[in-house]
User: Fold RNase H type-1 domain-containing protein from Theobroma cacao.
Amino acid sequence: MMAVREAFLIFSSSIWKDNHKLLIDSDSSNVVKWTIHPDMAPWRMRKVVLQLERLKEELEGWEIRHVRREANQRSDALAKQGAYLQYDILRIFSHGFAVEWRKLRGR
Assistant:
C-alpha cells in the first residue's frame, strides 16, 4: 500500500497528472482490492487508505491491476534491488532522456 501511495504522490505532483492516466501494476491482490475498495482494507491500513483516497481525487484518471509476480519478473527484480538501496531514486524517461533524482533515506 505504501508503494501505491508513493506512486500516487509522485504522479499527482507531476506535469502529467492533468493529461494522462496513472497505471499501476501490483503483484499483491490485496493491495489492488484495497485500492479499489478502501472499505475492505484492514483497520491498521486506515491512515494510508485515507491518504490514498485524497490523492485519487486529485487525478483525472488512474487504474490498478493485479499482475502475477512470475509474469512480471523484471519489475520484481527491480523492486527487490530497490529495497536494498540506501537512497530513494526516481527515474523518469522521456524523449530518449533519463532524469534521475536521488535522496538519502531518512533525510
